[in-house]
Design goal:
Length: about 170
């Protein structure tokens, strides 16, 4: 996103990027409690899948928004709402499924794997941006996020199958 904005707005790009990231912060603070309450009864895996889908849609919106300032704000809002959904479910999801004796290790591996994949995606996107332009970089990011969407949708099904006792409704 910063490369995209800098290319579209060489003179004012840093100011625009700064306001967009400020909107992200504002939305996180304002909407995390609202989204948490609104999605309280939704399965953790479905929250995660919806969050990843929103992030994929946000990347497509960023791609379509090149040079359109308002589009960047809509895109960051979509991304932020997806980010909130994925963040609020992760700790609870692992805590319900991982024995206490292994939680520290699993949290560490999960955080490392996520940061590693994010770093690889950002590195490759940056290289593609420099070599081919923003459209190819966003297409790559969207493709990588679609892999995550497929994995999240598989998780919805497989988790319900593996941890069926967590899905039993109290009558």
């Amino acid at each position: 996103m910063p490369l995209d904005i800098a290319k579209a707005f060489p003179v004012k790009g840093s100011v625009i990027y700064g306001t967009i990231t400020s909107v992200n912060c504002f939305l996180v603070v304002l909407f995390t409690p609202i989204i948490t309450m609104f999605f309280e009864k939704v399965d953790l895996t479905k929250k995660f899948a919806l969050g990843v889908i929103l992030q994929a849609i946000s990347f497509a919106a960023f791609l379509m928004s090149f040079g359109i300032i308002g589009g960047y704000y809509i895109s960051i809002a979509l991304f932020t709402f997806g980010e909130i959904l994925t963040t609020i479910m992760m700790g609870a999801f692992l805590a319900e499924r991982v024995p206490e004796s292994h939680r520290g290790r699993i949290f560490g591996v999960t955080n490392f794997a996520g940061a590693f994949m994010q770093g690889i995606t950002q590195f490759c996107s940056g290289r593609m941006f420099d070599a081919f332009g923003p459209s190819y970089a966003w297409a790559f990011s969207i493709a990588m996020t679609m892999v995550a969407v497929i994995a999240a949708l598989m998780l919805v099904y497989l988790d319900k199958k593996e941890f069926s006792q967590l899905y039993v409704q109290a009558d």
